[in-house]
Amino acid sequence: QVQLVESGGGLVQAGGSLRLSCAASGRTFSMYTMGWFRQAPGKEREFVARISWSGVSTYYANSVKGRFTISRDNAKNTVYLQMNSLKPEDTAVYYCAATRSVVYDLWGQGTQVTVSS
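^ thats the sequence. predicted structure below, dont judge the formating
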């Protein structure tokens, strides 16, 4: 079983950057597709980005395409989300998640990202 712990959130001004990390425990991390999701106050959780087990394939929500980059280091059991050109509407709790099928069934506890205008 993989357990996920996010870090790297914080307060940043609009236009700034943050890099989120998600450290996974367990020896099967490289077998999982990893995703980032976010949930803003009063809104439903939404998909942000995902990366295949090999790191070759990535996919982004339109709202972050061109600004965010997802990557992974299977040797370090870590997935990253580099966030550039941040906007106030990016403010949310960011979660990493893992799946070996279609449904994300493993989730981290989340890390807060706040972008001030």
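The CA atoms of residues 88 and 115 lie 5 Å apart.
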